[in-house]
């Protein structure tokens, strides 16, 4: 009688068999099991805890619900979905989120598609310069455009100095100063580089002979664009739509800055306000809704991925790329693209910089210009508030930002490299798929929702793990796990290109596993490892949605300091902090490109 292995061996014995290989322990399998345990605790359990928090009575509600703490309840769902305040807490923010996410995705897709086509498919001049500049907006903090918008268009509805245009005598309506219209415009300017990169790379792979064949058969330019280019660009279009929509759902800074004055809330700002007002159960429900939206987007992405093979544009034959001749409109097109990039890069940064040197932005008289917001021991607009470069708090907060982003990036890069190694070397085991999918999970959780999940898990001590809320370690852990999908995917791609032969040769010569890792694998993968660490560090320096849930008084980073200045109507100080973040981000990006000899827009500009 045949007896299955699962019936003959206990789970402990099966794990022991897995880590054995030819009579000895397989170090790679041990590494994979350790990584699975770590990622399960740092990724899967926080998400699970978020779900349980939405259906358990919290201590703050024990007397009101007349139930014991931890008892099962659906009152939080009822409060969010079917109560007198559900419209304010959840329903209206949900509708607002979906509406602005749809509008931003549509605008981003159109702008990115047109700009990518002009730069990659025409004979426009300055291609490399335009392609490089087109990705700059994505390097800025997401709410930097909102800060520039407020500096220009702010009216007297909000406390503090009025905006530049109002000082110059213009009357700015609320609909233009705050709410959905400026949110859509600002986030479109920030996210269009994503669409540009997607479409630019896709256009580079399209054989121009397809377009020429259509024109030979009598199709005009418009028909060719609609019936040839659009169908073959469908995978890039769908990827752009999904990625932009997912990022927009979780963004916090811009809706908070531009929506709060007119009480226009999205899911991210509603989650933050419920957290501030002491409603952890409702907060968990909102975070769970954001998680569901992310999961649906990933499921849609998987479905679209299955259809990619229908749109193959690069086969075994040679590929030709003949640029479309602009002729007499080449100069106007250059001017138009240059003007657009000026508006989305130079103008916002210029407005932010100019405001930091003016007591009242927009009043262009000599006495109004000042250096106090940078160098004064105490600014005249607010007592006991020193200039940024004289403020010891700024130095402390900047150092905290560097520590959080730096240590988090090191952990993220190292963990991503190890996960990538285990996934590639253990492809024949289910453990490989588990690690691959689990390491990708943070991608589908919006940043503020992921912060809420960590807040729930580490707010109190659980077993040997002490409470970490309000500590630097919690920020570092959240930051290192949040960007793990970036480093893991890079490591998997890089490891897949490295054959097993170098390690096998070292094994023949008697090298142990640690020797092979430090003498062979890591040196070969050092560029990928460095790029992953630097990318995570850059993202961490400008992260707000995640850390806004974890920052406490006395433990702030530059991004939360900027928001605090905004809350206190100190826009010049807030804008100065944004410029400091932008400077550090640009500097790190330049160093990265110099050392790795690559760039985000590499190849798009020719």
Automatic annotation (TrEMBL):
<keyword id="KW-0997">Cell inner membrane</keyword>
<keyword id="KW-1003">Cell membrane</keyword>
<protein>
    <submittedName>
        <fullName>ABC-type transporter, integral membrane subunit</fullName>
    </submittedName>
</protein>
<feature type="domain" description="ABC transmembrane type-1">
    <location>
        <begin position="398"/>
        <end position="592"/>
    </location>
</feature>
<keyword id="KW-0472">Membrane</keyword>
<keyword id="KW-0812">Transmembrane</keyword>
<dbReference type="InterPro" id="IPR000515">
    <property type="entry name" value="MetI-like"/>
</dbReference>
<feature type="transmembrane region" description="Helical">
    <location>
        <begin position="404"/>
        <end position="426"/>
    </location>
</feature>
<feature type="transmembrane region" description="Helical">
    <location>
        <begin position="130"/>
        <end position="152"/>
    </location>
</feature>
<feature type="transmembrane region" description="Helical">
    <location>
        <begin position="181"/>
        <end position="203"/>
    </location>
</feature>
<feature type="transmembrane region" description="Helical">
    <location>
        <begin position="438"/>
        <end position="461"/>
    </location>
</feature>
<feature type="transmembrane region" description="Helical">
    <location>
        <begin position="30"/>
        <end position="51"/>
    </location>
</feature>
<dbReference type="GO" id="GO:0055085">
    <property type="term" value="P:transmembrane transport"/>
</dbReference>
<keyword id="KW-0813">Transport</keyword>
<feature type="transmembrane region" description="Helical">
    <location>
        <begin position="467"/>
        <end position="486"/>
    </location>
</feature>
<dbReference type="Pfam" id="PF00528">
    <property type="entry name" value="BPD_transp_1"/>
</dbReference>
<feature type="transmembrane region" description="Helical">
    <location>
        <begin position="335"/>
        <end position="359"/>
    </location>
</feature>
<comment type="similarity">
    <text>Belongs to the binding-protein-dependent transport system permease family.</text>
</comment>
<dbReference type="InterPro" id="IPR035906">
    <property type="entry name" value="MetI-like_sf"/>
</dbReference>
<feature type="transmembrane region" description="Helical">
    <location>
        <begin position="94"/>
        <end position="118"/>
    </location>
</feature>
<dbReference type="GO" id="GO:0005886">
    <property type="term" value="C:plasma membrane"/>
</dbReference>
<feature type="transmembrane region" description="Helical">
    <location>
        <begin position="224"/>
        <end position="246"/>
    </location>
</feature>
<feature type="domain" description="ABC transmembrane type-1">
    <location>
        <begin position="94"/>
        <end position="301"/>
    </location>
</feature>
<feature type="transmembrane region" description="Helical">
    <location>
        <begin position="281"/>
        <end position="304"/>
    </location>
</feature>
<feature type="transmembrane region" description="Helical">
    <location>
        <begin position="572"/>
        <end position="591"/>
    </location>
</feature>
<keyword id="KW-1133">Transmembrane helix</keyword>
<feature type="transmembrane region" description="Helical">
    <location>
        <begin position="529"/>
        <end position="552"/>
    </location>
</feature>
């Amino acid at each position: 009688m045949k007896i299955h292995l699962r019936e003959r061996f206990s789970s402990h014995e099966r794990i022991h068999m897995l880590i054995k290989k030819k009579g000895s322990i397989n170090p790679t399998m041990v590494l994979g099991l350790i990584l699975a345990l770590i990622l399960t605790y740092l990724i899967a359990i926080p998400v699970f805890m978020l779900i349980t928090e939405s259906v358990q009575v919290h201590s703050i509600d024990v007397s009101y619900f007349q139930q014991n703490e931890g008892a099962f309840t659906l009152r939080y769902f009822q409060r969010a979905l079917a109560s007198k305040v559900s419209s304010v807490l959840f329903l209206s923010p949900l509708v607002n989120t979906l509406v602005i996410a749809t509008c931003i995705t549509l605008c981003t897709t159109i702008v990115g598609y047109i700009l990518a086509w002009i730069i990659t498919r025409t004979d426009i001049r300055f291609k490399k310069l335009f392609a490089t500049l087109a990705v700059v907006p994505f390097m800025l903090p997401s709410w930097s455009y909102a800060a520039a918008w407020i500096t220009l268009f702010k009216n007297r509805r909000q406390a503090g100095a009025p905006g530049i245009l109002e000082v110059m005598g213009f009357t700015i309506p609320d609909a233009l100063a705050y709410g959905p219209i400026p949110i859509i415009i600002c986030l479109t300017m920030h996210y269009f580089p994503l669409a540009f990169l997607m479409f630019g790379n896709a256009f580079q792979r399209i054989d121009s002979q397809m377009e020429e064949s259509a024109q030979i058969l009598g199709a005009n330019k418009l028909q060719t664009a609609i019936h040839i280019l659009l169908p073959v660009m469908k995978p890039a279009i769908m990827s752009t739509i999904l990625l932009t929509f997912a990022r927009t759902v979780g963004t916090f800074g811009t809706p908070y800055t531009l929506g709060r004055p007119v009480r226009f809330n999205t899911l991210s700002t509603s989650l933050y306000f419920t957290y501030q007002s002491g409603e952890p159960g409702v907060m968990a429900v909102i975070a769970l809704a954001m998680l569901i939206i992310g999961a649906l987007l990933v499921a849609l992405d998987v479905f679209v991925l299955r259809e990619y093979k229908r749109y193959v544009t690069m086969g075994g034959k040679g590929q030709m790329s003949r640029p479309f001749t602009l002729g007499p409109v080449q100069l106007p097109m250059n001017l138009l693209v240059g003007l657009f990039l000026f508006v989305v890069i130079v103008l916002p940064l210029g407005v932010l910089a100019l405001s930091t040197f003016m007591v009242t932005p927009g009043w262009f008289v000599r006495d109004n210009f000042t250096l106090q917001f940078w160098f004064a021991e105490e600014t005249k607009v607010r007592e006991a508030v020193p200039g940024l470069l004289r403020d010891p708090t700024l130095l402390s907060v900047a150092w905290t930002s560097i520590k959080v982003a730096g240590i988090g990036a090191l952990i993220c890069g190292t963990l991503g490299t190890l996960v990538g190694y285990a996934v590639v070397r253990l492809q024949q085991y289910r453990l490989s798929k588990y690690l691959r999918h689990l390491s990708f999970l943070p991608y589908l959780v919006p940043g503020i929702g992921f912060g809420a999940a960590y807040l729930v898990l580490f707010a109190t001590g659980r077993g040997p793990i002490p409470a970490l809320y309000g500590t630097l370690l919690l920020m570092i852990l959240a930051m290192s796990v949040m960007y793990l999908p970036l480093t893991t995917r890079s490591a998997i791609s890089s490891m897949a290109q490295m054959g097993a032969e170098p390690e096998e040769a070292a094994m023949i010569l008697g090298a142990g596993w640690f020797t092979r890792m430090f003498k062979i694998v890591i040196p070969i993968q050092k560029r990928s490892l460095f790029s992953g660490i630097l990318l995570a560090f850059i993202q961490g320096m400008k992260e707000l949605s995640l850390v806004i849930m974890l920052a406490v008084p006395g433990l702030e980073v530059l991004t939360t300091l900027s928001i605090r200045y905004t809350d206190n109507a100190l826009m010049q100080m807030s804008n100065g902090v944004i410029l400091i973040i932008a400077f550090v981000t640009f500097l790190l990006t330049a160093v990265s490109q110099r050392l790795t000899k690559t760039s985000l827009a590499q190849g798009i500009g020719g």
